[in-house]
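Re: the request from the purification team.
They wanted to know what the chain is likely to look like in 3D before they choose a buffer screen. I agreed to run a prediction and write the result into the notebook, where they can find it.
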Amino acid sequence: MANVGVRSSMDRGRTWLKEKSPWAYKVLSFIKAQMISYWFFEALAIFVALAYKYPSFARHGGTIRGEYSIGYGAVAVIFLGSGLSMSTKSLMKNMGHWRAHLVVLVLQFLITPAILYGFACAIRAAHNAVISDWMLVGLIVTACCPTTVASNVVMTKQADGNDLLTLCEVFIGNVLGAVITPALVQLFTTGEWSFANPANGSSVTRVYKDVFKQIGLSVFIPLFVGQVLQNLFPKPVKIFYTKTKFNKVGSFMLVLIMWSSFSTAFYQHAFTAVSHQSIIMICFFNVGIYVFFTVICFLISRPIFLLKVFKEEPDRVKHSTAYIWSYHLFRPFYYNRRDTVAIALCGAAKTAALGVSLVTAQYGDNSPHLGQLLVPLVLYQSEQVLTAGILTKFMKKWIHAGPEYKQELELKLKAKDEEEAVPVQEEVDEGSDEVFAREEKGAVEKLRDT
């Protein structure tokens, strides 16, 4: 009753304001709509402020043991939601999408590390005393990391991209990244960067252990549980997922992950270990390089020359055997719009989870350069989420404008209409049976009377 009274009072207040001052009503309505639309960024700002004020609470090894309660718990909630909402058949189909896996792995561990390494060398060659060399090493470590675990799935869902493919790329990339990332760091920290080479092979074992444990407990098990529940209880799970707005829960879990990362960085004095000029430079650089990587991923995912080379569908009479084989082998590398968005988000993103584990394992928790190494990792993770949050709005419009999405929508509407028509037809059949039974009974009674 109290809630009803409060709601009616608010309605009367809105009505009064709309009548007395329409201009003020429109302004307040616009502000309210914007606050609801950009709640993610507002929540992130609040939690970053909390991380600055109370860094010991959510940091790694802090009051709530952020590496477990958030690093495992929040990520597990995101992938539980994925398991509850994804079709098992479609998931297995995307797991076999070897072309996309190959493209994303090349982007993660070859193209983006090489580009960032080149930029780091160029910046160091300028001999600017303000820019910390150890911060540039942190940039190289960031470049060697695989795609991020949680934010990719959340952002791909928001853009209506192929989140099943994203989930596969996250799993494959992070499992292989546990082996490839330390090797890449060792490879890049030679020559002029040899001062930053930890040269401690035994410490890599800890990285492997941490990564495989996190992938198993926070990705594989929640996903498996979600899939089992979805297949055993499809209708209750669908109602639960819709009523609880589980996709919004995943976005909030992402905010918690960022909170833990910033808490760790503030606790390690990462932002005071380097100059303000270095932080400003790395902030602008991260946004620019993330957008640049996204454009590269987009161009690689939709190479125009394939459309020019393979203009026609293969025909055994019209085309040669070489053309037919080439078409089936190379033409699928031109991906549809939903797959392109998934590849773009996975290829450009870098996870801070593996990076932090690698830095602390190879350089030690008490390293005097730890703060400088963590700055690029933490800032890139946060800025890629913020930038992707803006880009997904445009990606969603681009997907919805495509022929594939319209075709899928038509098929879904057709299937829904058929499902709704079945009960109606059953009612008609049942009604027809009743009429036939009554007519038959009447005919029997008439026969008896005669």
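For the purification team: The domain at 54-401 is CATH 1.20.1530.20 (Na+/H+ antiporter like fold).
Please add any questions underneath this entry.
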